[in-house]
Amino acid sequence: MFHLFDIIPAKFFSLLSSPSRQTYADILFFIYSKSSESNSYTFLKEDFINLINDYLEQNINAEIDNDEDIELKDSNDKANFIFRKLKQCGWIDTEYGKNQQLYVNFEDYAISFLDTYYNFGESRNLELSSYVYRIYHNLERLEIKRGYFTIQDTINQANDLLKKLRSLNSNIKKYIKRITNLENATEEEQLEEILSQLLGEYKEKIIDDAYYYMKTNDNPHKYKIPFNNICANIKENTVYKSSIIEQIVKEDNIAETAATEKFYESMHFLEGIFDRIITIMEEIDIKNSRYITVAIERIKMLMNHNANVEGYLINILKNFSLLEENDMTFKLFDARNIIKTSLYTPRTSIVFSELPIESTTNSNTTIEKAFYHQLATNLKHSKKEINKQIMTMLSTKQNLTIKDFNIKQKSEFIKVLLALIYSKETTCDYQVLWQDTEEVIDNIHIPSFIIERKKKNE
Q1: pLDDT of residue 281 exceeding 50
Q2: Alpha-carbon span 113 to 169, nearest angstrom
Q3: Domain end: 303, 336, 354, which one?
């Protein structure tokens, strides 16, 4: 059984649970980022302390819990104090070099910890777009002499991709929770936060261009069958199989029987890897749809009470649950709600046909008129209809910006917002290019954008 504290010292996490945890964490990541500029995680002691000193001079209000009862006169004293704390807690170690100079090293487990959490704060999802391609072409170009190494490298890349996708999948829940925990803010602040998150941070860190590229150009469905055919050929080719098993025996120092078993286990893992990737991506898509729904429902609730911005966002996606993929079709109820134990059993199956926008009913009641009016509005907000409207606008222009929409009209603002939300759908014929600037509309900050036609290969 794996025991964590057989590897790391007991005081390792005490540094991050102390009153000065923010200062210690910032210093660790600051020095770690500097190590990327060199070829190792090793520093001269004086250089290491100087880096701590640099941080303290730039952050003069940084808190330090002095538990040694010694006077810390200046930043240099504080830097030496922090150096001792890092060493006592097992984050760093020291050793003398050949020139008798004292060097400081990050411990290997500290490097793993810092590398993992440092990447949380960086935008590194661009790697997603190349993983699927590399996994496929690794085996496609497999050489007999390096067969085992290629297979192991492919497995490692597949596991890395699975970890990144699982992390992406888990993080969506965090954004849903943030939307539902805004009760203490004013309505304007809530609306500002939701739009900022929906069109900003969430777009960049969750459903960004890298994941979108992976769903289109590098979609796993595209590689699944040919990849599995390559795996089958490797298993059936006696020359490849015997050579790889021989390499396993030599590299892992195990018997041929165990090496043969490992060979088949590795190939079995690879044959199922694209199914696992596709399953996680489907879960991400479901959670993404759920997030969009929660965000829009929250906007709807706010707009029902917020008179200040009612002129722009009022009734956005009211009765959003009626919207379907096909722009002229809707359902009166969700078929999943019918259960076999229901007291009512339909005599015939229910068939939903296309409904006209205008009512053909003879009833003149206010309720029915309102219903058909709302139905006509909802149909205009479907993905297909929004796509059609945007492409019609693009038929006479090379691209569109927010200035091409009369956002003083609430219907136009709704069109803009929906166009941005739907832009990542593979069925859309346009794409959104986000700019570094922003537009301010009634105190609502919206990132600037350019809408253009998708290129043929996208």
Answers
A1: yes
A2: 21
A3: 303
